[in-house]
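Revision sheet: structure tokens.
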Amino acid sequence: MTSRRNVVARAGLAIAGLVGVGAASSAAAMPLAPSAGTSMIVLRGRNLRTTNARSGGVLSEGDRIGVRGDLVDDEKGELVGDFIAAGFAMGGSSHPAQGERLELHTFNLRDGTIIGSGTAGPLEGVFAILGGTGRYANARGTYIARQSHQDLGGDGSADFVFKLTR
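Predicted:
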């Protein structure tokens, strides 16, 4: 026999589910264009250098990787800061340029710092902006990172495309 408490609880869950579906439908109908309070920033990385816990650039699952490089403005090409990353190999390949990595990024810029985290595969990764300092204090959003590390056979370049919200 079903108690009154169970019936009320199930009805509450059903209503919450319908509200959630309605909210998801409304969110899906929203345009993807940047809204007020959203800004796009594009940075280019150069001279990306990689260090890891093992010599030879071959990582096993759980091994660490470190990255350093310069950041340049997309429009003028002038130096605007530096990029520092720490990562962990997550498997999928014994070579860090081919396997998936969990990464933590720090973008040290003239007017503040942006901190991000996410996973990167062989070509690119999508990262969450965790916050920042200075001009980027309380920033949130996402960015796409495409990295081609010198020490892993690449040309040492990177592209970082940010969509910041405040």
